[in-house]
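Need the bound structure for 4'-deoxy-4'-aminopyridoxal-5'-phosphate, inputs here:
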Amino acid sequence: MTRTQDAALRARALKVIPNGMYGHESVRLLPDSFPQFFSKAEGAYIWDADGNRYLDYMCAYGPSLLGYRDERVEAAASAQAALGDTLTGPSPLMVELAETLVEMVDHADWAMFCKNGTDATTMAMSSARAQTGKRVVLVAKGAYHGAAPWCTPIPAGTVAEDRAHVRTYAYNDVASLEAAVVEAGDDLAAIFASPFRHDAFIDQEAPDPAYARRARALCDEAGAMLIVDEVRAGFRLARGSSWSELGVQPDLSAWGKCFANGHPISALLGSDRCREGAGSIYATGSFWLSAVPMAAAIETLRIIRESDYLEHMARLGDHLRSGLDVAATKHGFTLRQTGPVQMPQIMFADDPDFRVGYGWAEEMLARGVYMHPWHNMFLCAAVTEADIDMTLAVADEAFAALAARRGALEPHPILVALAAATAG
Ligand code: PMP
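Answer from helper R.:
Posting the output first, comments after.
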């Protein structure tokens, strides 16, 4: 596999983009062979700037749900594009999309639209504070809710005051949540929760129903808002609210990434309990009301309701998980496969500095399968049985190649630096 175009683009990027790239899509934290730039995508596949094709288990970090360039969604988007996109006000589609989401997500009585997940989580926080007149917001330690000053995991450029009233508790740990609520006293505005624990670098955890129910009860007792951050997991676990099956209804939920199958739109959904607060905050953006992503969202949501996309992803995810276990064991490796099968986290036992995981990701990549060594992955509905069979055949070769160079594996320098910084 050649990557000369990618190397040339990186060199040019270094001159005109700080560090050549920023945020989680920078390959700085990935194995050295991973390409930075991609030229196209179709279904479950992506092509890098050099034309190398990969089966993509990252789905653009979530936005591709039905597969890239899904024909039905693209037809709806193109039809609207022929009429107009970003206008002086919203198109009628805004009302239809709000009605659709209110119909599909049981706790929701209203919807507001924005662009990125961070917009939606930040609006959730502001709405909760406006509704309650209180300040303290509790988030699970290590959970990702976006890149705004109140929640960015890397605080460069922020000041302590940005998160003066943002405090942490341990996900799934009722006692720690209760203690944080007690500490907030009569100043609790909201509790944030992810649908399941999907933090990077660690095993994923399903939500303990007792934790979810306690979070609801504590919010009720304090008059605070329960916020579920569906940005990453929304519509990959259920056709509506991810906590419905636990019998827990949030007051607010933040959505993004996949509900327009890759078109740029996110949403804050809420119940009547927070309607006034949401209506009082000043929230807007030049592109938030664009019509094309709304057309794409309406069509994506129709397919979500009417197709077996979810069962298909779960079935193939199961096949992938069991097949990988067999292949790993055959070559003397033990995998830690956690999270829902359609959002798998795959790491190795006894691999504290990720050297084995990085080596395996490189071996997979070299054989045309793009997997991530420390972030949860995503299946899309365009993946086929044949794709999974191909992945498993490739994995068998990749484990064999890895076993052959196991003794020579080194940890990635950036992870060593990161571990040192954390320890210090
Ligand atoms: N919340 C969660 C759970 C996310 O996974 C993300 C994005 N990875 C965000 C919020 C922020 O979304 P965005 O990057 O679109 O701002």
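Comments: The chain has two domains: 4-61+308-423, 71-306. The chain has a mean pLDDT of 97.
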